[in-house]
Q: What sequence folds into this?
């Protein structure tokens, strides 16, 4: 697996499609254990990303990631904005200088993103946040070079589904205390879409 | 969903334009942002005061801009924290050289975005301090979670920090009184009916015909308990007792009875009557009372009660003149 | 019906108690009445200003009591004019020897009760004058019927007459500026959803899910037309054009965008934006703008737009200081 | 027919019962072409009258009527308060000096009440107000001494029903313009109850 500038642009265009398609669903999830805006926020932010990326000339994947980060940061708002912004900014820094981005560097980028978001959100695994999708995905990438896109989707999907059983202790869902159990975390779901989009890009490159 | 709006995705832009339109003597919008600033900002050697958050809480926060209160308000999407770039623009617009003070309500989104903006501002050489308001006793005060939410008590923090800043005090002094206010203020809300985000189009939660929710947040986040709707007096007793159980309010207090959006003022006054009676029975002296809509949740029906313990300094700062349209003193 | 009340038949008593409770420095209730009076009334040689009407329109009318505005407000049952004996008590309480001026909204009940009170007061040797506000262009201006209703424009009459009275002017002078204001002020309202009288327990009218009513009164009385809900901009165009068609507002105007009770302030600002644009296009200069809840109809959702044509005298009186909590200048 | 102090007290006690029984109905009528408070207002005012009358010692029917007038005036509010207040105050003045009140004097009292309320409300017959019940009832009384209580009820009831076809030009119902047609006037209905109560008192005396 190698990620070119074009691949990375495709990644976010596909991710945007998923955010638009699932805007209502993400908002519904956030209605259950939040304030009914996650889909609205993500759809607004990714639409901006999708509007912007094709109009620019990027020299590197790092530059793409940086623009994604800055756009999400300034368009999503709420908790998700700075969190996704931090992830892609850290990733941008980590992959700087290698183009196209190789598997090892990309894995490293993902891990840096995870470390960044944990710090920013003061959240750890098991608190019912998007960290609960990013952590297992990073582990999955670290396991080996030779993986199938389907396995990535499966890993992210299982991780997302598992958030259902967790009681939230971070973010707005924490106010629901034990009543947060039984609902999938909206941020974990939007993260799942991001990895699903990534898998599609990888699949096309295979 | 019945709303007087144009495009559900443009409500914030339309609102901000309408907030400034007709009020250009006192406030202005920073072009291409949803930041509203005093026309006389930045004021040399005065600490700049910036607040903000998601919209849908009007008159919070733009209604509190004025001499003696805020210098700028950053308006986010509905119920969604504004972004660091917008907050940064506000900070820069009000920095008169004495630094900028941020009043942040304790929600993950607000804290993250304001903190990032503060980091960016500091990187540009602006001194920034902040206070995080967490007055909502409906939420457990736990260090393992996000902790208590900031609700209507935030308005009193604006007032007190604003008065201090207007007096020419240093950033550290403004921070000190803001923190004192946060330490002494407690609130709790309740709702009879939900609110609908324009872009979502459906109520964000449901309540049965004879049901109410005690301890609800200003975005319709859950509270302590859903139960049978009771009388105004019983509601006042429950809310007030929860505040009194959480903090020792012996001495002088300010009382705020805040409407959540759709509640007639009539009902707020009925609640006020009982709250005042309870406080009098407990020998708590009400120094000042505020009844009205200060921190709303779109068209949610319900109210919140806020108590603020006052010392002489806070009393003085509460009483100082303010030009803010939603809190004129 | 979901309301934060105790006994539906006691809402007015409970509300009045809660209006005074916590505000005893500035206002007092005349014992065993629902009359609220400035604590410093009667003021020697100042014309006393009395307004009132049914309750359910809060902050009207008690919120407009204060130096520079009303001396007393008489609070009737919900949507029901107060009675002559109560009005008489208010008149007597504020008569400082210079006579008493009554601001009456043009409803049969209000006119009859206030007129009878005026007759009783005159019989006791108190000089009384009055103005009848009829700003609602939704009603035909006919001498064969009751004529136009008094709605949100009444608040501007309070302000202007109040400022004149505070200046020490004579009863005739107060009457003159009040009448000038009535001649120059026009309003029109609209609603999205009805209101429920506590004692009736059921909404006083029905509107379909996508329906609105243009020209509705502040008791839910019918307007001009029920039709499909349109955008905020289209609503603003319709309301503003109806005002402009009724009166020549070329010159300077004051604009009031008034919320009917349940409408989020956000929506009022969206309407304001468009109203200001329309006026600018017609070269009508907006001298001052008011956006908020000034004259409500319990928890009705909707808004009204008021325009007041201003000459130099009215401008000056509009800007003079007022201590009234709901209209602080 | 002669009206004693006791008869007149009974009249208003019975009228009160009817206002209480029909409180919701009167409010419903007022919901259709008014502001949903007529039943509430009348029930409140007449309850006060009923509470007060039995506790006082009245020297004359005129005194009873005066107290009824003052109580209604200070407790009903709205349009109905001063209108009914005016009616009974005028009636009180007109019957002063004759006790018990004879038929002629009573008829005269009713007529004075009608004149008073027309003046106060600036309303005439045919405007869909309580005048449309009072005017025919006064005519009926003026027709002759020898009448049956049932005829009084019938006259008042027909008059009330006839308000249905009128377009309102006075009071709040006037705002409904042509839409006011087809609904019975609430004030005419409360006036009907007052005459129904009077008929019952007359019947008992027969
Ligand atoms: N402290 C945190 N650390 C990591 N992720 C978080 C944290 N708080 C919230 N989140 C994520 O953000 C999501 C909510 O995003 P969103 O609804 O857009 O923001 P808000 O809660 O401000 O309305 C949650 O579902 C969760 O996955
Ligand atoms: N100008 C008038 N003259 C005579 N009767 C009137 C007049 N205006 C209203 N009414 C009567 O009063 C009744 C309404 O009374 P009510 O509902 O108590 O007062 P309001 O209209 O102030 O709410 C009407 O049904 C009508 O019979
Ligand atoms: Mg959310
Ligand atoms: Mg949010
Ligand atoms: Mg009425
Ligand atoms: Mg009525």
A:
């Amino acid at each position: 697996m190698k990620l070119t500038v074009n691949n990375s642009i495709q990644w976010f265009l596909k991710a945007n499609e998923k955010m638009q398609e699932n805007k209502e669903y993400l908002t519904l999830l956030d209605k259950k254990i939040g304030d009914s805006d996650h889909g609205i926020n993500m759809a607004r932010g990714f639409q901006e990303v999708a509007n912007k990326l094709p109009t620019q000339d990027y020299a590197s994947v790092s530059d793409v990631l940086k623009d994604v980060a800055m756009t999400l940061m300034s368009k999503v708002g709420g908790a998700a904005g700075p969190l996704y912004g931090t992830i892609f900014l850290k990733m941008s820094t980590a992959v700087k200088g290698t183009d196209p981005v190789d598997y090892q560097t990309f894995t490293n980028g993902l891990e840096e993103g995870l470390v960044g978001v944990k710090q920013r959100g003061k959240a750890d695994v098991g608190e019912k946040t998007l960290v609960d999708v990013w952590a297992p995905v990073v582990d999955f990438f670290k396991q080996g070079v030779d993986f199938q896109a389907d396995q990535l989707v499966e890993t992210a999907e299982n991780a997302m589904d598992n958030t259902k059983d967790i009681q939230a202790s971070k973010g707005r869902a924490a106010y629901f205390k034990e009543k947060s159990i039984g609902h999938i975390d909206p941020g974990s779901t939007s993260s799942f879409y991001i990895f699903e989009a990534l898998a599609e890009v990888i699949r096309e490159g295979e | 969903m019945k709303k007087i709006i144009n495009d559900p995705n443009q409500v914030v832009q339309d609102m901000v334009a309408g907030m400034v339109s007709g009020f250009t003597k006192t406030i202005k919008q920073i072009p291409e942002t949803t930041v509203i600033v005093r026309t006389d900002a930045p004021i040399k050697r005065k600490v700049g005061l910036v607040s903000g958050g998601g919209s849908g809480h009007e008159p919070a926060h733009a209604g509190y801009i004025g001499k003696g209160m805020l210098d700028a308000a950053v308006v986010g999407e509905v119920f969604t924290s504004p972004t660091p770039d917008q907050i940064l623009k506000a900070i820069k617009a009000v920095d008169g050289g004495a630094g900028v003070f941020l009043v942040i309500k304790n929600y993950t989104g607000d804290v993250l975005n304001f903190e990032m903006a503060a980091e960016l501002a500091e990187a540009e050489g602006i001194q920034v301090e902040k206070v995080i308001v967490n007055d909502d006793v409906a939420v457990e005060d736990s260090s393992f979670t996000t902790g208590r939410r900031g609700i209507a008590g935030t308005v009193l923090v604006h007032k007190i920090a604003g008065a201090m800043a207007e007096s020419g005090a240093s950033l550290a002094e403004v921070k000190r009184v803001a923190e004192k206010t946060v330490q002494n203020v407690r609130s709790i809300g309740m709702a009879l009916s939900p609110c609908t985000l324009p872009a979502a189009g459906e109520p964000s939660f449901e309540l049965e015909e004879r049901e109410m929710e005690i301890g609800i947040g200003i975005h319709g986040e859950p509270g302590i308990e859903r139960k049978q709707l009771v009388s105004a007096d019983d509601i006042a007793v429950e809310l007030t007792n929860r505040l009194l159980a959480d903090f020792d309010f012996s001495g002088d207090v300010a009382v705020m009875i805040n409407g959540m959006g759709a509640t007639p003022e009539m009902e707020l006054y009925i609640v006020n009557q009982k709250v005042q009676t309870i406080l009098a029975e407990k020998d708590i002296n009400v120094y000042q009372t505020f009844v009205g809509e200060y921190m709303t949740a779109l068209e949610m029906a319900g109210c919140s009660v806020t108590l603020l313990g006052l010392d002489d300094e806070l009393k003085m700062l509460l009483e100082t003149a303010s030009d803010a349209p939603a809190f004129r003193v």
Remarks:
- Chain C touches chain D through 36 residues (CB under 8 Å).
- Chain C has eight helices and twelve strands.
- Residues 185-315 of chain C form a domain with the Hypothetical Protein Tm841; Chain: A;domain 3 fold (CATH 3.30.1180.20).
- The mean pLDDT of chain C is 96.
